[in-house]
Amino acid sequence: MTGRFDLRLLYSREDIAAVVRALAKRIAADYAGKDLLVVGVLKGAVIFLADLIRELTIPVEIDFIGLSSYGDGVTSCGEVEVTAFPAAPIEGRHVLVVEDIVDTGLCLDALLKFLAARSPASVRVCALMVKPARHRVGVEIAYAGFAIPDKFVVGYGLDFAQRYRHLPQIYTLEEAPVEGQLASND
Ligand code: XMP
Ligand code: MG
């Protein structure tokens, strides 16, 4: 992507809150009475995780994992590397991975392999957004929020070149029309 961008609202605060509440309700029911470790994927999932755990009615431990991924661009991670390791023990725990968005699934696939090698009792994934049209590897998302079109999205933790994470709503990043071509659509 080059040039200028416009932000177009995709999901409002209310849309997001409703989906977060619904996901939290299912998670709380499924993990009631279990020792649950919630692992957020840095940095995009931080805001989602913060809202999600406050809607959970069960106690949880939280931790984070960092993956090398997009850098400043918009294409998917090819080679995936763990850049920040969770401090919490994984072995024998029920682990819930919290992701902002699953695009091709390559990042998640690498993350699931990393976790599986540490012998958890179980691993499931909760993703606020999934882009079904772009999935390239078969990763199961037990708790999926919004299924979105193949668009680049920002806000609510998600960035473009580290910008827009602070926005409380979710927007698609649209290429701004080039001046002089505005009236030449038809
Ligand atoms: P893959 O392709 O491995 O990518 O599923 C997952 C990671 O890529 C980032 N990603 C995005 N970030 N807007 C963003 O701000 C997007 O539309 C988008 N699509 C993918 C994100 O970090 C995710 O964890
Ligand atoms: Mg991410």
From TrEMBL:
It holds the Pfam family Pribosyltran. Its EC number is 2.4.2.8. Residues 14-160 form the Phosphoribosyltransferase domain. GO terms for cellular component: cytosol. Its main location: cytoplasm. Keywords: Cytoplasm, Glycosyltransferase, Magnesium, Metal-binding, Nucleotide-binding, Purine salvage, Transferase. GO terms for biological process: GMP salvage; guanine salvage; hypoxanthine metabolic process; IMP salvage; purine ribonucleoside salvage. It comes from the Bacteria. It catalyses: IMP + diphosphate = hypoxanthine + 5-phospho-alpha-D-ribose 1-diphosphate; GMP + diphosphate = guanine + 5-phospho-alpha-D-ribose 1-diphosphate. It is found in: Cytoplasm. CDD domains: PRTases_typeI. GO terms for molecular function: guanine phosphoribosyltransferase activity; hypoxanthine phosphoribosyltransferase activity; magnesium ion binding; nucleotide binding. Its cofactor is Mg(2+). Pathway: Purine metabolism; IMP biosynthesis via salvage pathway; IMP from hypoxanthine: step 1/1; Purine metabolism; GMP biosynthesis via salvage pathway; GMP from guanine: step 1/1. Belongs to the purine/pyrimidine phosphoribosyltransferase family. This is Hypoxanthine phosphoribosyltransferase. It comes from Dehalogenimonas alkenigignens.
